Amino acid sequence: MSKSNYDVIVVGAGHNGLVAATYLAKAGKKVLVLERREHAGGQLASRAFDDGSRFDPLHAGGQLRPDIVRELGLARHGLAAAAPAPAYVSLLADGRRLQLSTAPGDARTLESIRQFSAADAARWPEFVAFMDKAAAFLDAAYRTPMPRLPHVGLAEGWPLAKLAWTLRRLGGRDMFRVIRSMSMSALEFTEEWFESEELKAAIAAVAIHGHTLGSMSAGTGYTLMHNWLNRGGLAHRPVAGGSVHLAEALVAAFIAHGGELRTSAGVQRILVDRQRVGGVRLDSGEEIAASTVMSAVDPRHTLLGLVGAPELPPEFVWETQSIKMRGAVAKVHLQTDGSHGVPAGTLAIAPTLKYLERAFDAAKYGEIAAQPYLEVTTAGDVVSIHFQSAPYKLRHADWAHARGNLEQLAFDTLAPHFPALKASVRHSRVITPADLERDLGLTEGDLNHGQLILDQMFFMRPLPGWSNHATPIHGLYLCGSGVHGGGGISGAAGRNAVQMVLKAKP
Amino acid sequence: MTNNQYDAIVIGAGHNGLIAGAYLARAGKKVAVLERREVVGGAAVTAEPFPGYRFSQFSYVVSLLRPEIIRDLELPRHGLKILPLPSTVTPMDNGDYLAAWDDHDLTRQELYRHSPRDAEASDEYGRVMARAAKAIKPIIGLVPPDPSSLSLRDMKGLLKLGQYGKSLSEKELYQIAKLLTQSAADLLNDWFEFDPLKGTKSASGIIGTFLGPNSPGTAYVLLHHYMGEIDGAFRAWGFCKNGNGGVTQAIASSARALGVDIRTNASVQQVIVKGGRAAGVALANGDELQAKVVISAADPKRSFLQFVEKQHLPDEFVQQIKNFRVRGSSGKVNLALSELPDFTCLPGEGPLHRGAISVSPSMEYIERAYDEAKYGQFAKNPYIDMIIPSMIDRDMAPPGQHVMSCFVQYAPYDIEGGWDDAKRDAFGETVISTIERYAPNIRRAIVGKQVITPKDIEDIAGITGGNIFHGELLLHQLFFLRPAPQWADFRTPLPGYYFGASGAHPGGGVMGAAGKMAAQEVLKDWK
Question: Which residue of A has its CA nearest to B484?
């Protein structure tokens, strides 16, 4: 192996990998980031239509956690301030629209809800206040390292006690509400607040967005809080010029701190010698040594693909194999002539709770939902459609053949709302879960590197006993979305992992 | 009036009510247990809808009944006799079957026939589940502390819970955490590959809940059923001599011997409140009974929304009880038979007739049955758990004749358009034609048929929503959240009014723990 003087190698230049790398570089470590693709950014990297124009392939918006933006000085490196949240609009069958903003005292929202229920409009402000509190608690939880049970030492016990105190400070009523809501289904949760089906479904859609779950699945109360936290409410906040700017700002900050980024440098193997990490081998055969390796790749691929089962304890392998990765998200991107007729904002096709559940039922049995839950956003002439449920594992077809159906289904579903859309299309791009696995290395096309379900959260993410970002391989850490704090674009997982690495004894 | 004066009144003579009454009487209190119906037993009753044919009308097996209750109340002396229910057979669609016999080697051989891998995994799975059940069992007997309270009692409870947590190994804790949050399907898929095995095992994860095997949280329900214990053996189910009415008759007999005044046809209209305290009850016939404390063993909705006037309870509490989920999901079909059902997979009379016979060919079969229920229909291809009590206890049917009890899921309480006679008939017909697929002679063997829908469970047994657990075993309805946050310690916001039934911790099944713990808490507060 060639000698190197890197302190840390980070595998994968997605936002979590870059956040981790930048913190390490800032702390004075010599860091090398390796990216298999031509461009950094992972899920944030932009793609091109046939005419060369760029679009955001996966995320209609996103915001890194404010303290990360501040600490890494990303504004100095070109990150524009977060845009104000646009409206979140549920498109209903009868042409009516339910338009929601989570800004306090938004009169239009109350008026819009009142079309469906005056009682719901009256409860709305309390609901938003509660959700903000719940999301703030979740944010605090994501910052708190999860200890190994039951031997919680002082170093871990103190932050945990602080977290418990954060929860208690919500007051008895909201504290229990948060605890109860986490394990509830979106249906149960929204029914406790509202009576109008349209409003309940609009909220439930956000709860299941990106997850292979239905409105009636237990634990979608938690995913609602999670998505609310990451979106800062219900609607996506678009990044000026595209989500890729988040990654570009991170790369600029990383380089400014002396970091080194190599693209088109796929890691073929994480090298292990007697349970200790030694470095990595690239697809080219080149080997680079380092005593610490952080992987921003999903845990299953990192451990079973890059490390390899023979290097790991058998029981750990077994547990890693059973991490639930279940991608069911596809995307349809349309390059139009501008006459698409789709307004700005985050638009959802989620008319009823049963509609959402039925869409999930299809995914459950390996079928593409014939009446899918869609979310539509625009960026100028580009219309982007989030398509759910389109399961990674198709029972009666394969993705090479099924991809054409997606576009057609999306058109059919949207035609009643946007009659001009189809005729306005010049180019289109469909991204299936199989594409996500192949192009981005996401096992089973799971955008969150592992489902955000109750048995894979907090101290059980990615695996019980391994929530502290370490692995059985000494010197190998996990910093991607699959670990505690991860899922969505916040950078929390990357930042948490660095804290563990900096604390670890060499 | 003097003979209407008690120390304690218990509303409802189901097993929990009777147990609460018996424990209070055992402590020297003068107790009345009031029952709306003409029979005691609640949902654990034996009925004779057709002369000579006797059925455990609703609940039909025992295993969860706490051993200390059996001991404390000397139930065997009062006629409790539990007969073994030795096997489970799952007929398969290809004409084959999967059996679990009461002989370990035989069972292993049988499973090996279908899947060597599963046979290898099965023992280890059993050990893991038994360990987890054992580890979690102490929590069942614990009065849930209120984590938001700073009172000495709750702090002590939390400390006890913490100490208990420390006593478990890291592995045990993780296993419990996983089991509490996982779906039965995820759990079983990690262990096994053979569909009928997974289907049959996953059924324990959905019984009594309005969830499918793929729903997170069902692994816990599976574990809840794993805690069944007869004579210290985990996962042993039994059948009570004389049906499940035999259980409650034994408890009632023990309670009477301890001096409990059990009154039937005594329908409680309202809890009387004097000076902000529960002071007795008013009956539907106008009688009033006085007592220092009142304990409700009815379901949470009846206990708090019907028996107590709204102004005596905080609005938030009332709202929480309204939010409590009690969606019934199961029904029963009780059949009087002129001959044994002849299963094509194992023709003729055989050992399968003395155990459970389960229609659960795969987890997907059960999941699809759930799908129908969640959209407001009963399952066209339901999960059915059959037992033939007359094979175990010959007194249940006339000589040469049989009774068969079929537990059926899913049948939603909130069926589209509401339950009526036509839908009940259609439901019964669906069950029979499902059984017919595996036992073609069933239809001609039927001499009597009783179909019970969740609505019937509500109407007859008085359980709101017809949920057999008085409230679903959902994560947000367990432990310190059952039936409502801050009121999981068997007390209620109305002083002198206590709550001790399946809707309280630790939840349903013929377990009796809630009744016993409620009585103990009453005694702790006694001045």
Answer: A176
pLDDT at A77 over 90: yes
CA–CA distance from A335 to each of A29, A49, A59, A194 (Å)? 43, 7, 16, 38
Q: A459 — contact with chain B (CB < 8 Å)?
A: yes
Provide, as residue numbers in chain A, all residues whose Cβ is less than 8 Å from the Cβ of B371.
361
Percent of chain A exceeding pLDDT 90 equals 87
- Block residue for tokens 């095992």: B201
Q: Do A150 and B170 touch (CB under 8 A)?
A: yes
Interface test with B, best of A181, A455, A459 (most B CBs within 10 A): A455
Tokens (6 digits) for B411? 């049948």
Closest chain B C-alpha to A459 CA, distance in angstroms: 9
Please tell me if residue A462 touches chain B, with a CB cutoff of 8 Å. no
- Kindly state whether A393 is in contact with chain B, defined as any CB-CB distance less than 8 angstroms: no
pTM for the predicted model, two decimal places = 0.95
B363 contacts on A by Cβ (under 8 Å): none
Domain map of chain B by residue range? 2-82+242-325+471-525, 116-193+204-236
Contacts of A130 (CB under 8 A, 6+ apart): A174, A177
Contact (CB<8Å) B181/A361: no
Is A218 within 8 Å of B215 when comparing Cβ atoms?
Answer: yes
Helix (H), strand (E), coil (C) string for A125-168: HHHHHHHHHHHHHHHHHHHCCCCCCCCCCHHHHHHHHHHHHHHH
Within 8 A of B144 by CB-CB distance, chain A residues are none
User: Hey, are the CB atoms on A459 and B177 less than 8 Å from each other?
Assistant: yes
The phi, psi pair for B280, rounded to 5°, reads 155, -165
Q: In whole angstroms, what is the distance from residue B110 CA to residue B115 CA? A: 9
DSSP labels, B255-317: HHHTT-EEESS--EEEEEEETTEEEEEEETTS-EEEEEEEEE-S-HHIIIIISS-GGGS-HHH
Rounded (5°) CA angle B42-B43-B44: 90
Per-residue pLDDT of chain B (527 residues; tens, 9 = 90+): 457 999 999 999 999 999 999 999 999 999 999 999 999 999 999 999 999 999 998 887 776 788 899 999 999 999 999 888 889 999 999 999 999 998 889 999 999 999 999 999 999 998 888 888 888 888 888 899 888 887 888 888 888 888 887 788 888 888 888 998 999 999 999 999 999 999 999 998 999 889 999 999 999 888 877 776 544 454 456 788 999 899 999 999 999 999 999 999 999 999 999 999 999 999 999 999 999 999 999 999 999 999 999 999 999 999 999 999 999 999 999 999 999 999 999 999 999 999 999 999 999 999 999 999 999 999 999 999 999 999 999 999 999 999 999 999 999 999 999 999 999 999 999 999 999 999 999 999 999 999 999 999 999 999 999 999 999 989 899 999 999 999 999 999 999 999 999 999 988 778 899 999 999 999 999 97
Say if A114 is an interface residue toward chain B (CB within 8 Å).
no
At A280, is the secondary structure helix, strand, or coil?
A: strand
Q: Does A160 touch chain B (CB under 8 A)?
A: no
* Cis, bond preceding A291 (omega within 30 deg of 0): no
Tokens of A362: 């299809």
Note whether ipTM > 0.90 here. yes
Please report the residues numbered 217 through 256 in chain A whose beta carbons come closer than 8 angstroms to any beta carbon of chain B: 217-219
Tell me the C-alpha distance between B174 and A474, whole Å: 22
Q: How far apart are CA B61 and CA B83, in angstroms?
A: 10
* Yes or no, beta carbons of A188 and B476 under 8 Å apart: yes
Instruction: Please judge whether B476 and A183 are an interchain contact, meaning their C-beta atoms are less than 8 angstroms apart.
Output: yes
**CA A59 from centroid of its chain's CA atoms:** 9
CATH H superfamily, domain B2-82+242-325+471-525: FAD/NAD(P)-binding domain (3.50.50.60)
pLDDT greater than 60 at residue A271: yes
